[in-house]
Amino acid sequence: MKKVEVVAAIIYYKNEIFCVQRPKNKLSYISEKFEFPGGKIEKGESKEEALRRELIEELNFYPIKIDNLFETVIHEYPDFELTMHSFKCYSETKNIRLNEHISSEWLTVKNLEKLDWAEADIPIVNRLIENE
Ligand SMILES: Nc1nc2c([nH]c(=O)n2[C@H]2C[C@H](O)[C@@H](COP(=O)(O)OP(=O)(O)OP(=O)(O)O)O2)c(=O)[nH]1
């Protein structure tokens, strides 16, 4: 099975988290699903380097702080095995623009469950809720 390794940012402004919606995709299980911004780690990059690069590419966003690893999820999608490393990050503004995603929401932890998340994100969402 193909393996994909990605980093993802749980971006906080005060007590809200930035959630982004993926565009339409031929893979129905990720098409138009909500996720944490990020993307694939490239050859030779550290996780933090990949995260900073992806946040600039997708959002023109520079976090004021990135915490240590929050959680790594391994999830088997029908077409590939995903390893996703998530990091809490902090923003000094709620004004973040989207270069690739089709919509975004700032939600408190208790409201995260209202979105239609990519399956691999559900363990992260659940851990955020448990830690509240
Ligand atoms: N960034 C990110 N990807 C996620 C999450 N949940 C989830 O299932 N994924 C999956 C969707 C994609 O198959 C893969 C990430 O690929 P991507 O398309 O965002 O990464 P990328 O920009 O580096 O990819 P590329 O299109 O440039 O090759 O991980 C998530 O919360 N954040």
TrEMBL record:
CDD domains: NUDIX_MutT_NudA_like (cd03425). GO terms for biological process: DNA repair; DNA replication. Pfam families: NUDIX (PF00293). It catalyses: 8-oxo-GTP + H2O = 8-oxo-GMP + diphosphate + H(+); 8-oxo-dGTP + H2O = 8-oxo-dGMP + diphosphate + H(+). SUPFAM superfamilies: Nudix. Its cofactor is Mg(2+). Keywords: DNA damage, DNA repair, DNA replication, Hydrolase, Magnesium, Metal-binding, Mutator protein. GO terms for molecular function: 8-oxo-7,8-dihydrodeoxyguanosine triphosphate pyrophosphatase activity; 8-oxo-7,8-dihydroguanosine triphosphate pyrophosphatase activity; 8-oxo-dGDP phosphatase activity; 8-oxo-GDP phosphatase activity; metal ion binding. Belongs to the Nudix hydrolase family. This is 8-oxo-dGTP diphosphatase. It comes from Algibacter lectus.
